[in-house]
Design brief:
Layout (H helix, E strand, L loop, with lengths): L1 H22 L4 H21 L14
């Protein structure tokens, strides 16, 4: 299920990044990628902050 979205993102990203670089010499593709990564990490943190590591299924971490 996720393969289609990854393939689409891989196909669309380079032309979009090239367009952003042609409009401005500032590294907007890098800034945008950093913001997206930060947003993703914060969302994962908020979704899983109440789940104890290894204890959700009775597993012990050694």
């Amino acid at each position: 299920m996720t393969t289609v979205q990854r393939s689409f993102a891989s196909a669309v990203s380079p032309p979009f990044a090239g367009y952003m670089l042609s409009v401005s010499t500032f590294g907007w593709p890098l800034v945008r990628a950093g913001v997206l990564k930060l947003t993703y990490d914060v969302l994962l943190l908020t979704l899983f902050k109440n789940i104890a590591a290894g204890r959700s299924r009775g597993l012990a971490i050694s």
